[in-house]
Design brief:
By secondary structure, the protein is α+β, with helices and mostly antiparallel strands. The protein has 2 domains: 119 residues, no CATH class; 198 residues, no CATH class. The chain has a 6-stranded antiparallel sheet with strand order 1-6-7-10-9-8, with no helix packed on it. It starts with a strand and ends with a helix. The relative contact order is 0.10.
Length: 323
């Protein structure tokens, strides 16, 4: 039995081996209630997630939009986690499961063994982000493409500072927005251009806040992360901690201009979340200490463009995480 979107309220489902569950879903597709599943031996779960749910006689499969990865097992049950899904196989033991966005906590009796106290570490979250970023690049490379070529695919010509794609990319569900523009050619400059990443927390007509810029070379290789002064992008100013709090919102599931480019950008920000937080806080420190010669407000001083930056290497980062 498969339960998808446009469902509301609660209902029960049963199959031949006494599997039952209770689901509460919104019409938008968000699973806002809980899931309780029992088999011959106790197995109980409660999973607030987004997306669809599939229940099969051989196992219970909770599908969600969260980024999940890794595996663990203990006692006579096994928990398998892969990108976007949870699979529980139970012969004995019991487990309580909670999942919010990108986090998962497990608790249970001693029969489960070490899995009872298991938590996904920050390294596991970063490792999954690194795997997804490399996967996006590998799939594009098999097609003779890369994130930059896909971004500029429909462009008839590429002029410096022109936004690509026209009208920017905006995901109305998360408020994430981005555009790409290139630099004028400069000798010795490896960076071809950069993706400016924003979040509109209140929707398309609400304020827009710049998070970070993601620089790539002419082959679409990630080379730099940096923040900019307010005048550069003309966003609605938000202090560092408010900006940091928006980072998890930069999560795009959108086909235009290329789904793989959107996912690559989202997981790059997830992979380097700690570094980006430092860059954002450094941005505010630089602006707080900046005194323009003409007495203008620091955020309007054209002499100050880049406020913090960090050179990065995706493959080196992934290797450091064992990916």
């Amino acid at each position: 039995m498969r339960c998808r979107l446009a469902l509301c309220g609660e209902f029960a489902l049963r199959c031949s081996f006494a599997l039952f569950g209770r689901f509460a879903l919104r019409c938008s597709g968000s699973l806002c209630g809980g899931v309780s599943v029992c088999s011959r031996r106790p197995l109980r779960g409660r999973v607030p997630v987004c997306g669809s749910i599939s229940v099969r006689c051989s196992r219970t499969l909770f599908r969600c939009l969260a980024m999940l990865g890794g595996s663990c097992s203990g006692g006579s049950f096994a928990l398998r986690r892969s990108a976007g899904s949870l699979a529980l196989c139970c012969r004995a033991g019991c487990i309580t499961m909670r999942c919010r966005s990108r986090s998962l906590a497990l608790r249970g009796p001693a029969a489960i063994g070490q899995a009872a106290a298991w938590r996904p570490t920050m390294d596991e979250t970063r490792s999954e982000a690194a795997r997804q970023a490399l996967f996006c690049e590998q799939v594009l490379a098999k097609s003779g493409s890369n994130v930059l070529l896909e971004t500029l695919r429909e462009a008839k010509s590429v002029a410096a500072w022109e936004h690509f794609p026209p009208g920017d990319v905006f995901d109305p569900e998360t408020g994430a927005q981005w555009y790409y523009h290139s630099h004028p050619p400069q000798e010795g400059l490896a960076e071809h251009g950069h993706f400016h990443c924003f979040v509109r927390p209140d929707g398309a007509n609400g304020p827009i806040h710049h998070l970070v810029a993601v620089g790539v070379d002419a082959y679409g290789k990630l080379v730099r992360l940096f923040t900019v002064n307010q005048w550069v992008v003309g966003d609605n100013w938000l202090e560092a901690e408010g900006t940091v709090a928006l980072l998890p919102r930069f999560d795009l599931h959108f086909a235009r201009p290329c789904y793989l480019v959107n996912r690559w950008l989202a997981v790059v920000l997830a992979l380097y979340a700690d570094e980006i937080k430092i860059l954002i806080r450094d941005r505010d420190k630089v602006l707080a200490g900046h005194r323009p010669e003409n007495g203008a407000p620091a955020r309007e001083d054209r002499a100050l463009e880049v406020t913090s930056e960090l050179g990065v290497d995706l493959r080196q980062k992934a290797a450091g995480l064992g990916v």
